[in-house]
């Protein structure tokens, strides 16, 4: 599949004008109409739109729509320069849906070349066969990880320094992508809700999900053991709208019927739930299926059954799931080594031990799934953000 990614390089983030009016007309008349995606920053979007003021996320949405009318299939307006925003907010528009992609802003002078790297990374992901939304999310996380990795580098005398694109060569992870809609890097920070905890802290499940996404959660599972079916469906539908606005997949714990009824992105099932092969038959090939595994044999069966990923735990003892067997870091490593599927670690994980989990150095361990360290806390967004920073520091998950 040939695809054209156009980065309309005209004004750098630092304000340098890089292209004159003749280039502008080439962009408008020739390149935009044939692009699969364009990736302007705020100043470039404004230049393409005759000087339109862009100061808020709503302005970015309007700009994305207007730019889309000029011919590209997708528009990514990058909000890195948005005033008064603690997050890096980008808007992706494909002519049907808007996706608000947020990541915590990394403060560093080493940001030279981030725009070019983002566009190149999107091109690489699209060339691998990924759909545009996945490509943009992976590229954004690559840039974010590289920025964080490079934030202390001290090279050069200019106002901006370079960032280190080659961090991946220094990390242990080797990508093992499969050509399917599920993107294993979504397992990076897996937030699993718990109705009792949310009730205890007086928040709705919808507020909890929103806060987790704002803090940097990359996939959500609704694990609502006490909910009535009707209530569960209604909150699942509302959560799905929020998740999709941010390009974050939403899975349902245990209840394949609820997942089907609200068209969620998939399910997570355990060894005593509906077998994954039956869930696959009911859900079809596109939906995501995760299976809890504590042994290599279970991991092999999950793969045979057509699962997409494995949840392996308890890595540490947990109070969230009664009578759960703790497999420890060794058990996790054994399952990772045996598994042909990506793995997310679960059980007793939080900011204090997430790094140790990721440092078992298994290339298919893509992230951590967490309940109480996010949801049995006063501020879900703050706790998620802290965990996100720890995971970024451990240099994993963005492959
Ligand atoms: C990501 C993830 N991993 C494991 C589990 C546990 O699932 P299960 O064994 O079915 O237990 P319950 O969560 O249903 O109590 C999970 N939910 N998510
Ligand atoms: C839901 C679940 N499954 C586990 C497993 O080992 O399969 S451990 C667990 C609970 C995880 O909660 P917390 O992050 O609060 O420890
Ligand atoms: Mg279950």
UniProtKB/TrEMBL annotation:
<keyword id="KW-0808">Transferase</keyword>
<feature type="domain" description="Thiamine phosphate synthase/TenI">
    <location>
        <begin position="189"/>
        <end position="374"/>
    </location>
</feature>
<keyword id="KW-0418">Kinase</keyword>
<dbReference type="Pfam" id="PF08543">
    <property type="entry name" value="Phos_pyr_kin"/>
</dbReference>
<dbReference type="Pfam" id="PF02581">
    <property type="entry name" value="TMP-TENI"/>
</dbReference>
<dbReference type="InterPro" id="IPR036206">
    <property type="entry name" value="ThiamineP_synth_sf"/>
</dbReference>
<comment type="pathway">
    <text>Cofactor biosynthesis; thiamine diphosphate biosynthesis; thiamine phosphate from 4-amino-2-methyl-5-diphosphomethylpyrimidine and 4-methyl-5-(2-phosphoethyl)-thiazole: step 1/1.</text>
</comment>
<keyword id="KW-0479">Metal-binding</keyword>
<feature type="domain" description="Pyridoxamine kinase/Phosphomethylpyrimidine kinase">
    <location>
        <begin position="3"/>
        <end position="159"/>
    </location>
</feature>
<protein>
    <recommendedName>
        <fullName>thiamine phosphate synthase</fullName>
        <ecNumber>2.5.1.3</ecNumber>
    </recommendedName>
</protein>
<dbReference type="InterPro" id="IPR004399">
    <property type="entry name" value="HMP/HMP-P_kinase_dom"/>
</dbReference>
<keyword id="KW-0067">ATP-binding</keyword>
<dbReference type="InterPro" id="IPR013749">
    <property type="entry name" value="PM/HMP-P_kinase-1"/>
</dbReference>
<dbReference type="GO" id="GO:0008902">
    <property type="term" value="F:hydroxymethylpyrimidine kinase activity"/>
</dbReference>
<keyword id="KW-0547">Nucleotide-binding</keyword>
<dbReference type="GO" id="GO:0046872">
    <property type="term" value="F:metal ion binding"/>
</dbReference>
<dbReference type="GO" id="GO:0009228">
    <property type="term" value="P:thiamine biosynthetic process"/>
</dbReference>
<keyword id="KW-0511">Multifunctional enzyme</keyword>
<keyword id="KW-0460">Magnesium</keyword>
<dbReference type="GO" id="GO:0009229">
    <property type="term" value="P:thiamine diphosphate biosynthetic process"/>
</dbReference>
<dbReference type="GO" id="GO:0005524">
    <property type="term" value="F:ATP binding"/>
</dbReference>
<dbReference type="InterPro" id="IPR022998">
    <property type="entry name" value="ThiamineP_synth_TenI"/>
</dbReference>
<dbReference type="GO" id="GO:0009507">
    <property type="term" value="C:chloroplast"/>
</dbReference>
<dbReference type="InterPro" id="IPR034291">
    <property type="entry name" value="TMP_synthase"/>
</dbReference>
<dbReference type="GO" id="GO:0004789">
    <property type="term" value="F:thiamine-phosphate diphosphorylase activity"/>
</dbReference>
<dbReference type="GO" id="GO:0008972">
    <property type="term" value="F:phosphomethylpyrimidine kinase activity"/>
</dbReference>
<keyword id="KW-0784">Thiamine biosynthesis</keyword>
<dbReference type="InterPro" id="IPR013785">
    <property type="entry name" value="Aldolase_TIM"/>
</dbReference>
<dbReference type="InterPro" id="IPR029056">
    <property type="entry name" value="Ribokinase-like"/>
</dbReference>
């Amino acid at each position: 599949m040939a695809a054209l990614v156009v980065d309309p390089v005209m004004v750098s983030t630092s304000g340098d004008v890089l292209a004159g009016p003749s280039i502008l007309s080439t962009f408008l008349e020739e390149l935009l109409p044939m692009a699969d995606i364009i990736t302007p920053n705020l100043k470039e979007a404004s230049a393409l739109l005759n000087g339109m003021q862009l100061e808020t996320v709503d302005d970015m949405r309007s700009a994305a729509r207007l730019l889309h009318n000029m011919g590209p299939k997708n528009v990514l307006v990058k909000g890195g320069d948005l005033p008064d925003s603690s997050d890096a907010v980008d808007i992706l528009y494909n002519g049907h849906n808007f996706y608000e992609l947020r990541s915590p802003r990394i403060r560093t002078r080493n940001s030279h070349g981030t725009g070019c790297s983002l566009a190149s990374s999107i091109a690489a992901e699209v060339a691998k066969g990924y759909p545009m939304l996945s490509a943009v999310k992976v590229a954004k996380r690559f840039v974010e990880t590289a920025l964080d990795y490079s934030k202390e580098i001290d090279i050069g005398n200019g106002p901006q320094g370079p960032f280190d694109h080659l961090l991946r060569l220094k990390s242990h992870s080797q990508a093992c992508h499969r050509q399917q809609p599920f993107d294993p890097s979504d397992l990076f920070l897996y937030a699993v809700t718990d109705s009792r905890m949310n009730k205890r802290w007086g928040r709705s499940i919808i507020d909890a999900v929103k806060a987790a996404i704002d803090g940097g959660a990359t996939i959500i599972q609704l694990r609502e053991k006490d909910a009535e079916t009707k209530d569960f469906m209604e909150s699942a539908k509302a959560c799905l709208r929020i998740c999709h606005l941010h390009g974050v997949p939403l899975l349902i714990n245990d209840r394949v019927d609820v997942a089907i009824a609200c068209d969620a992105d998939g399910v997570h099932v355990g060894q005593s739930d509906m077998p994954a092969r039956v869930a696959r038959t009911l859900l079809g090939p596109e939906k995501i299926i995760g299976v809890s595994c504590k042994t290599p044999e279970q991991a092999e069966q999950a793969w045979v059954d057509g699962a997409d990923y494995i949840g392996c735990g308890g890595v540490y003892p947990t109070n969230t799931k009664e009578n759960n067997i703790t497999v420890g870091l060794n058990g996790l490593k054994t399952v990772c080594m045996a598994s042909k599927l990506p793995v997310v670690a679960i059980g007793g994980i939080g900011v204090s031990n997430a790094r140790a989990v990721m440092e078992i150095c298994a290339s298919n361990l893509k992230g951590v799934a967490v309940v109480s360290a996010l949801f049995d806390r006063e501020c879900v967004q703050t706790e998620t953000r802290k965990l996100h920073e720890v995971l970024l520091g451990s240099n994993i998950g963005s492959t």
